[in-house]
């Protein structure tokens, strides 16, 4: 079979991306899958370990804590992010006064590099000298000690993630703009108010978008806490902000246990797949009901 | 490849410059990574990739892993042949920790003990006599109490008597002073010696600094502004650190400061801090690399680095010279670093030390800041670090 010239050109354009993708993502992913079954310290050749790494995980209290923290974060941050992005998209999808600057303000924090953002967050949330607590004190509110307090510390991560909804917001806003006005006119004629319009028209149409964005954001969340945890807390106070990404990194690169780190990664990946599957199933049921 | 603060970085830049001036055509590229933790990660991945730097600086608590795996070159034979360096010219305390299974792997650049950096102005203002060279835990504590003051009457102290990182590394000298060993078996350690009542006493002492006496900042205060910054800003009277703080503290303009030895309990003991140059096995052109290590540790090389204030030179001759004891440079009492050498002890060289130390530090930190009892802290040390050293 001879490829058309156009296809050959396309392949040539794609090649650098594919090579990079394979060398930097797909290859290493399979390599760490294999490493998960070995003891490997990066200084000498890997030794076969069978399932030993996986057997060690359930007794590793810090790993369990990290898994717990990660899912806690996911369970709270993800719905909040989606709801907030969705609400803002509904509010700003048509021109009103100051729509432009408001949209920009919502999107902007998402393009700030993580380390810079982390340093700003450190300053804002500084329990004694940060502007946030100084303001709360002025208002007579008992201010949390944020990153110094094991209960409040993970909430800092949730709050900062709510400022990183630029992409979610833009995609949902565009999706909302695409919905034909006729649908709403019909709904109005049948006497549906704003809320019912949202539930019966907007939401079902946006559902695939919400699912796609939610799934993507969930996978990102396993990693997105990493740079913030690494810069702001290193897991402190007492593992309260030890998330799975940081844990894997420390296990592998700090303690030179690449096998165990890889096993943690594999387990995390499987959990991720499970949760995604469950969400997908739930979505199908829900859409089925709505369509009836 | 080296680690350290900007002040330390400058010292290494000068060292490289001097080497290149002396050796026509020699090219040395300096890689500087500020934090020791990042440095170790970089080192690990560089070794994994088979491309480590030709000369690497490693702390004695951290090199055993590399020696055990045989990825660093034994330097004993090189030292024996050298016409410039002689093992006998180094302080024995600096050389010994870099021997792994009897073989010398690193040429030590420095050796420091943990000392008390203190702010003279705050001592004078509070009318507290300056530390003597032979002070006790009680004298130290009573000074810290008097130096912890609430100057604006808001019910919270604004000046702290003491600041220290809460870690195993900082606890260890107090354990020794209390009269206990740090590990269960010094020759074949498996874990910490937490069963010893004197070990417990040292843990209690560290907890009480916060819980009972409140002479160190709370977790919230430490999170808001760490003790080292507090010391530099003149709001903490004493700070525990090794010699490495000196280049940074020399930039302090607002007050005069000096150093004193750690206070003593049953015994006076200090803890060794030392870094050495290592040569990774994969390196090519080993003779040229040795030449650089040799120069860095020669009288000339150590003098250059000592001038930055960073190091207590490991060569007796340089340590006793004005390069280190220069009376016009702070700290005036630099002799403390040399006088405490005979009582200085080193932690065991063990492949899993860093791992154990990290876990123990987490437990100590949470114990001290949450005001747990010594028994609770010891129970968690037992649960989490027992057996780790034997792996």
Count of DSSP-assigned helices of chain A: 12
Q: Classify the fold: give the CATH topology of chain A.
A: MetI-like fold
Could you say which structural class the secondary elements and strand pairing of chain A correspond to?
mainly alpha
Strand-residue proportion of chain A = under 5%
Tell me the number of strands of chain B: 14
Largest two-chain interface: A-B, 22 and 27 residues
CATH topological fold name of the largest domain in chain B: D-Maltodextrin-Binding Protein, domain 2
At the fourth level of CATH, the homologous superfamily of chain A is MetI-like
Radius of gyration of chain A: 23 Å
Mean pLDDT of chain A: 87
Largest sheet of chain B: 4 strands, mixed
Instruction: Name the overall outline of chain B.
Output: globular
Distance between the termini of chain A: 48 Å
Q: What's the CATH architecture of chain A?
A: Orthogonal Bundle
- What is the strand arrangement across the widest sheet of chain A? 1-2
Number of domains of chain B: 2
Give me the CATH architecture of the largest domain in chain B, please: 3-Layer(aba) Sandwich
The low-confidence runs of chain B, each spanning 5 or more residues with pLDDT under 50, are none
Assigned CATH class of chain A: Mainly Alpha
Structural category of chain B: alpha/beta
Mean pLDDT of chain B: 90
């Amino acid at each position: 079979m001879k490829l058309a010239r156009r296809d050959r050109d396309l392949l040539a354009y794609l090649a650098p991306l594919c090579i990079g993708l394979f060398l930097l993502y797909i290859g290493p992913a399979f390599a760490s899958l294999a490493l998960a079954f070995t003891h490997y310290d990066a200084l000498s050749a890997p030794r076969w370990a069978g399932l030993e790494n996986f057997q060690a995980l359930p007794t590793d209290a810090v790993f369990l804590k990290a898994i717990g923290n990660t899912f806690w974060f996911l369970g709270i941050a993800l719905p909040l992010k989606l709801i907030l992005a969705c609400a803002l998209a509904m509010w700003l999808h048509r021109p009103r006064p100051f729509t432009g600057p408001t949209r920009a303000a919502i999107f902007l924090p998402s393009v700030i590099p993580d380390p810079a953002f982390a340093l700003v967050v450190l300053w804002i949330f500084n329990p004694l000298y940060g502007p946030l607590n100084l303001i709360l004190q002025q208002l007579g509110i008992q201010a949390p000690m944020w990153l110094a307090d094991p209960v409040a510390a993970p909430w800092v991560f949730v709050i900062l993630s709510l400022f990183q909804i630029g992409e979610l917001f833009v995609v949902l806003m565009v999706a909302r703009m695409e919905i034909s006005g006729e649908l709403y006119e019909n709904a109005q004629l049948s006497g549906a108010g704003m809320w019912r319009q949202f539930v019966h028209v907007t939401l079902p149409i946006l559902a695939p978008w919400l699912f796609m964005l939610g799934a993507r954001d969930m996978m990102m969340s396993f990693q997105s806490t990493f740079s913030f945890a690494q810069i702001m807390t290193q897991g402190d106070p007492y593992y309260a902000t030890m998330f799975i990404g940081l844990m894997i990194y420390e296990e592998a690169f700090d303690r030179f246990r690449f096998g165990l780190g890889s096993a943690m990664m594999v387990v995390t990946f499987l959990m991720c797949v499970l949760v995604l599957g469950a969400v997908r199933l739930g979505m199908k049921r829900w859409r089925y009901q709505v369509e009836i | 490849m080296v680690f350290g603060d900007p002040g330390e970085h400058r010292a290494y830049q000068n060292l490289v410059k001097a080497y290149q001036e002396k050796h026509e055509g020699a090219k040395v590229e300096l890689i500087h990574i500020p934090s020791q933790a990042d440095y170790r990660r970089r080192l690990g991945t560089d070794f994994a990739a088979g491309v480590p730097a030709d000369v690497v600086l490693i702390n004695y608590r951290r090199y055993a892993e590399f020696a055990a795996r045989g990825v660093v070159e034994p330097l004993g034979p090189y030292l024996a042949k050298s016409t410039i360096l002689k093992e006998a010219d180094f302080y024995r305390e600096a050389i010994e920790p870099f021997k792994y299974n009897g073989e010398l792997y690193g040429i030590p650049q420095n050796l420091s003990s943990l000392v008390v950096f203190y702010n003279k102005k705050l001592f004078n203002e509070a009318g507290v006599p300056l530390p003597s060279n032979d002070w006790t835990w009680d004298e130290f504590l009573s000074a810290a109490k008097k130096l912890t003051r609430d100057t604006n009457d808001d019910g919270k102290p604004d000046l702290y008597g003491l600041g220290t990182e809460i870690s195993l590394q900082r606890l260890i000298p107090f354990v020794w002073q209390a009269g206990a060993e740090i590990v269960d078996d010094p020759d074949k350690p498996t874990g910490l010696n937490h069963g010893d009542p004197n070990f417990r006493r040292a843990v209690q002492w560290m907890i009480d600094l916060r819980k009972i006496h409140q002479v160190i900042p709370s977790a919230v205060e430490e999170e808001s502004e760490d003790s080292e910054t507090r010391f530099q800003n003149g709001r903490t009277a004493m700070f525990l650190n090794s010699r490495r703080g000196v280049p940074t503290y020399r930039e302090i303009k607002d007050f005069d400061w000096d150093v004193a030895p750690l206070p003593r309990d049953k015994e006076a003991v200090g803890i060794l801090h030392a870094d050495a140059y290592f040569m990774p096995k994969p390196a090519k052109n080993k003779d040229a690399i040795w030449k650089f290590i040799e120069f860095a540790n020669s009288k000339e090389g150590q003098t250059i680095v000592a001038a930055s204030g960073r190091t207590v030179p490991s060569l007796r001759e340089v340590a006793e010279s004005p390069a280190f004891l220069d009376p016009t440079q702070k700290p005036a009492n630099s002799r403390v670093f040399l006088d405490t050498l005979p009582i200085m002890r080193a932690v065991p060289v063990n492949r899993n030390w860093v791992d154990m130390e990290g876990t123990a530090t987490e437990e100590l930190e949470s114990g001290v800041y949450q005001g747990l009892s010594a028994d609770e802290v010891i129970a968690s040390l037992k649960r989490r670090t027992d057996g780790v050293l034997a792996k």
